[in-house]
């Protein structure tokens, strides 16, 4: 059975209530998504920002703001540091971007004193429910890491496995993607994909099954895998994690799917102490709510692992 | 009005009848597509290959083979050289792959004596009619050139312009794609996209309007362009040619669209003396017929340019 965002929302509702900390919360779209997440029982939230503006926006939208704790901090940079510190100190379980520049938001995430560094690399995962594709797909990295090295790719995989686990997928299948499914020595992407596969076989990457290089059809379409006779391969159109060669390939595929297909998706930044929600202005309301639900189940998974 | 494959087929029917030369024609899927193209009045065909096998396959399919000229050449390599020579000598106007390995087929295309070299680089273009996208899109290169240099990209654009012209699109808009629409000096793809744009402005690339780097949404979605306020850019979600950074990005996007969306498409290899049809086993019947129609109108365009 395919896992859907409904399942992820349902799981988040069964967990001990998680707390979302929002940096610079005076943003209508963000308040709308957070209010919906609260209404659905996905999480509680602490809104850090300009209290007067937050209340004015909420009133204009007919949102009962009394259900949220508000920390008044009109200065944008200071608000982000206050909000991220709540996560750093264990008073909140996930961190969300409000009305500030991405670079300023990331600066708070990476702050050495109150930020969310763990010593590992940060990476982005976008979870897709695509009609006609039999499994939930975990795209990485389509938004954050630009040109990952082999070592970065190992760490991206390690960051993404707990996200799969949180969504109920144990031992996920990882497809390092390329244009072709053979190891062409003239294509560094293929050579690295092969190396990742061997590292997995040697036990250097655990908790997953890596099989690459793979073309996209062989990674996500069991019929294509059957048609092309790739017996002996560990992935037969049933990949969970799609590992992209670089940000251009990842981002272009991500946008191609979002702009040509009716999909449900949610995205988070991982490799941090708590999951980080970095949705963009162009993301839909549904994507924002899905991202909060995804962050909630991942926050639970991280706590479980650290317990 | 969006141009469709119906328009391309209709145009091919109005032209002086073009002749298709098929290398190693004893292939059921190829004969089926060629018979359909003949029936629709897109082209005539010369089938080069094992005559007995060709006749047996046609009989099994109920195709009247007497409508085609057959040249009997049971040897695969020899058949490809005979078939490509027909194009080289001007007796045929387009060249199509039958039942032989791609590498052997390409060897005939590149043959110094009887092949189709023009001195320029070869590149592949895949033409897409995607529901919801307002224009016909020309993807390049998703299948042939692996890691194009800046100079290669100039030549890919030059190869693709006549294909647009043949489809009724004058002065096409070319979007060199990337993950972002700004020139990030840490991303060589963006720097090259910017350089292509400047070469176009300086008149070093003519017959088109180049504007890059562009993210995919800003290239193909006018609403996204409006939403993100990219006034002053020459492309506002209305690109014709999508120029991919490398074969991985191109091929992954191509397969993402084919496997998640209902599309019509057709592909040819360009930069050759006549258009080359290199469809794969996994392409549908419709894609094969579309590719022949595309080749027919491009063959006409090439003849017109050389006249």
Can you give me a brief rundown of this structure?
The structure is a homodimer of 307-residue chains. Chain A has 307 residues and is α/β, with parallel strands linked by helices.
Question: What's the end-to-end separation of chain A, in Å?
Answer: 30 Å
**Unreliable segments of chain A (pLDDT under 50, ≥5 consecutive)?**
none
Major beta-sheet overview of chain A: 6 strands, mixed
Oligomer: homodimer
Task: Determine the fraction of residues in helical runs of chain A and give it as a percent range.
Answer: 40-55%
Radius of gyration of chain A: 20 Å
Helix tally of chain A equals 11
Q: Can you tell me the overall shape of chain A?
A: elongated
Strand count of chain A: 11
Task: Summarize the largest interface: chains and residue counts.
Answer: A-B, 42 and 42 residues
Strand content of chain A: 15-25%
Chain-wise SSE layout:
The structure is a homodimer of 307-residue chains.
Chain A lengths: L4 H10 L3 E6 L4 H12 L3 E7 L1 H11 L7 E4 L3 H13 L5 E4 L4 H9 L12 E7 L7 E4 L9 H17 L6 E4 L11 H14 L7 E2 L5 H5 L1 H6 L13 E3 L3 H14 L3 E7 L5 E2 L7 H22 L1
Parallel strand pairs in A: 1-2, 1-4, 2-3, 4-11, 6-9, 7-8, 7-9
Antiparallel strand pairs in A: 5-6, 5-10
Helix pairs in contact in A: 1-11, 2-11, 4-5, 6-11
Folded structure, characterized:
Two copies of one chain form a homodimer. In chain A, helix 4 (76-88) packs parallel to helix 5 and helix 6 (150-166) crosses helix 11 (285-306). A six-stranded mixed sheet of chain A has the order 8-7-9-6-5-10. The first copy, chain A, has a five-stranded parallel sheet with strand order 3-2-1-4-11, sandwiched between helices. The first copy, chain A, is built from eleven helices and eleven strands. Chain A is of the alpha/beta class. Helices cover 43% and strands 16% of the residues of chain A. The longest helix of chain A is centred in the last third of the chain and has 22 residues, at 285-306. The first copy, chain A, has helices spanning 5-14, 28-39, 51-61, 76-88, 102-110, 150-166, 188-201, 216-220, 222-227, 247-260, 285-306; strands spanning 18-23, 43-49, 69-72, 94-97, 123-129, 137-140, 173-176, 209-210, 241-243, 264-270, 276-277. Chain A binds chain B through residues 130-133, 142-143, 146-147, 177-180, 186-187, 189, 215-217, 220-221, 224, 227-228, 244-253, 255-261, 281-282, and chain B through 130-133, 142-143, 146-147, 177-180, 186-187, 189, 215-217, 220-221, 224, 227-228, 244-253, 255-261, 281-282.
């Amino acid at each position: 059975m395919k896992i859907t965002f409904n399942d992820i929302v349902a799981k988040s509702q069964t967990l001990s209530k998680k707390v979302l900390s929002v940096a610079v919360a005076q943003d209508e779209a963000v308040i709308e998504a957070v209010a919906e997440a609260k209404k659905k029982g996905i999480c509680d939230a602490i809104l850090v920002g300009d209290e007067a503006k937050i209340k004015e926006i909420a009133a204009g939208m007919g949102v009962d703001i009394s259900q949220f704790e508000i920390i008044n901090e009109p200065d944008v940079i200071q608000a982000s540091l206050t909000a991220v510190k709540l996560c750093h100190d264990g008073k909140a379980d996930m961190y969300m971007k409000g009305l500030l520049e991405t670079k300023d938001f990331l600066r708070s995430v990476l702050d050495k004193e109150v930020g969310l560094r763990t010593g590992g690399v940060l990476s982005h995962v976008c979870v897709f429910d695509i009609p006609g594709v039999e499994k939930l797909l975990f795209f990485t990295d389509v938004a954050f890491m630009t040109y990952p090295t082999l070592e970065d790719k190992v760490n991206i995989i390690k960051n993404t496995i707990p996200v799969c686990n949180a969504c109920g997928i144990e031992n996920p299948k990882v497809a390092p993607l390329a244009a072709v499914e053979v190891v062409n020595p003239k294509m560094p992407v293929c050579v690295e994909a092969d190396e990742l596969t061997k590292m997995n076989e040697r036990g250097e990457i655990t908790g997953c099954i890596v099989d690459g290089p793979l073309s996209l059809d062989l990674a996500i379409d069991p019929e294509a895998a059957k048609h092309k006779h790739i017996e002996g391969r560990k992935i037969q159109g049933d990949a969970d994690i799609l590992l992209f060669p670089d940000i251009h390939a990842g981002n272009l595929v991500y946008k191609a799917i979002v702009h040509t297909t009716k999909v449900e998706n949610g995205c988070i930044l991982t490799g941090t102490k708590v999951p980080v929600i970095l949705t963009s202005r162009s993301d839909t309301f549904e994507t924002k709510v899905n991202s909060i639900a995804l962050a909630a189940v991942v926050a639970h998974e991280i706590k479980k692992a650290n317990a």
